[in-house]
Design goal:
Blueprint lengths: L1 E7 L4 E8 L2 E5 L6 H9 L3 E6 L11 H8 L2 E4 L11 E2 L5 E4 L2 E7 L8 E7 L8 E5 L17 H16 L6 E4 L19 H7 L8 H10 L7 H11 L15 H6 L4 E4 L3 H6 L6 E2 L5 H8 L6 E5 L2 H13 L5 E6 L1 H6 L9 E2 L1 H10 L4 E5 L3 H6 L6 E2 L5 H4 L8 E5 L4 H12 L5 E4 L2 H9 L1
Parallel strand pairs: 3-4, 4-5, 5-6, 10-11, 12-13, 12-14, 14-15, 16-20, 17-18, 17-19, 19-20
Antiparallel strand pairs: 1-2, 2-3, 7-8, 8-9, 9-10
Helix pairs in contact: 3-5
Length: 450
């Protein structure tokens, strides 16, 4: 028996290849799906089935692409928000044999209406479930979000509660295989590990400790989550089926003259925040390579042309992989060498960074022309904040920047300064000149004031 987890960095997406006796199946494949074919061939397996736990919101499914390559059958749950054109519908209780393995379908709505879990049985071992692929219903340390149907908030929260009871009934021995790990936008309380069992989660997962269905519904409907605009793109593509990812996920390397001649919708600086703040091309925005999965989808729209500015080729490759997986792959090229460009006389901009003493002094002055702008998530702000600050989530600045006064002065802060730099870069690209970044942000403030 083979069971291999394939992790997609950045998105913290987990997909799986399982197989036995010459046959294999894939659960929740990503768009760049060569890896499943390669691993199946290495183990002498033929991929015959592709199982989707739900219509993903945060990445493009590779199911239609992988099916085209292999001839495998794609299975998807009922009650999807539209027709999943590349898949067959499967229902509760249906079973599929993968060599000596059996996959049994469990309908687990709540996160989405079409959500399924798949119980895994080993015919050569025993009758109990060996594992369960829980998708976005159950994570390690958390459960799925239920905010995608705000007009039916209580209904879907109740559905998720019932679905979790089905999973628990598989037995404490059952290994949990979720579709995401810590760092995913699909849950905020996940443990920083990717292995667990139903028994461990039943005893330790805080969401499974909630004493009643009514209390669970209240808890879930009180949660606050953010919905990046690109989720709509993912939802649409995961109904009709996305195109293949580029076989070579690396951008054309640009000279300085070529970069100057381009007219991208976004010049995206993917270097580290301190490097961006110290010196960047005018008009560029800051989204460090490792932060692209979390924030690119807020500021870049489908089809918009992108040029990248990087420190090295590794960052360019990472950035292109992340962008491709969320469908933002109209990439004109990548440039390396900001310092060299400045040395040749190219214009550059910078954003000052300030420390706690300066922030304290400004707060004491009660300057009406200055605002400390906190761009953290709302749950972070509610846990701890600087009372005089104003809150706008960094992602919401893609629209809310227009409500701010360009003649006003702003200091951007977050937990450490990284998201603040993303926010400052966006404002600077919109013509804000009186901005700076609180280096260390809440971390630095807490060291002084706790």
């Amino acid at each position: 028996m083979l069971l291999e987890k394939i992790k997609t960095p950045g998105l913290a997406h987990l997909s799986y290849l399982i197989g036995a006796k010459g046959k294999a199946a894939v659960i929740d494949p990503r768009r760049d799906c060569e890896i499943y074919v390669e691993k199946a061939r290495e183990n002498g397996l033929e991929i015959t089935h592709i199982f989707e736990t739900h219509r993903n919101e945060d990445l493009i499914s590779g199911a239609p692409i992988l099916a085209d390559w292999t001839g495998a059958k794609v299975l998807h749950g009922p009650n999807a928000d539209g027709e999943v054109q590349y898949a067959q519908t499967t229902y509760e209780g249906e079973k599929f044999e993968i060599g000596s393995l059996t996959i049994e379908v469990i309908e687990t709505p709540g996160h989405t209406y079409d959500h399924l879990a798949y119980a895994l049985y080993d015919q050569d071992y025993d009758e109990g479930a060996v594992g369960v692929f829980t998708g976005d219903a159950l994570f390690v340390g958390d459960v799925g979000r239920t905010d995608f149907y705000p007009e039916k908030a209580e209904e879907v929260a109740g559905l998720l509660y019932d679905s979790l009871q089905k999973i628990i009934k598989l037995g404490d021995q059952t290994i949990v295989y979720p579709a995401h790990g810590a760092g995913s936008v699909c849950g905020s309380g996940m443990a920083d590990r990717e292995f667990s069992t139903v028994g461990h989660e039943r005893k330790n997962n805080p969401r499974l400790q909630i004493e009643s269905k009514e209390a669970f519904i209240r808890f879930k409907t009180d949660e606050e989550h953010y919905v990046p605009p690109y989720f709509k793109l993912m939802e649409r593509l995961n109904l009709i089926g996305g195109d293949e990812a580029p076989r070579i996920m690396f951008p054309k390397l640009l000279s300085l003259d070529q970069l100057k001649s381009l007219k991208p919708d976004h010049l995206v600086d993917i270097r580290e925040p301190n490097a961006f703040a110290s010196g960047h091309f005018p008009g560029s925005i800051s989204i460090p390579a490792g932060m692209i999965p979390a924030f690119a989808g807020w500021f870049i729209k489908e089809g918009e042309k992108i040029a990248l500015v990087a420190t090295d080729e590794n960052d360019l490759q990472t950035a292109v992989e992340h962008l491709t997986r969320i469908g933002l792959d109209n990439i004109l090229g990548g440039y390396i060498g900001v310092v060299e460009a400045v040395a040749q006389g190219h214009d550059f901009s910078s954003i000052p960074m300030i420390g706690t003493e300066t922030v304290e002094a400004r707060l004491k002055s009660n300057d009406a022309d200055w605002t400390l702008l906190d761009v953290r998530a709302i749950d972070e702000v509610q846990t701890k904040n600087i009372p005089q600050s104003k809150h706008i989530y960094v992602g919401h600045l893609h629209e809310k920047w227009s409500e701010l006064d360009k003649n006003h002065s702003y200091t951007l802060m977050c937990a450490s300064g990284k998201r603040a730099t993303v926010a400052a870069g966006w404002l600077a690209s919109k013509g804000f000149e009186n901005i700076d970044i609180y280096l260390g942000s809440m971390g630095a403030w807490s060291n002084v004031h706790d």
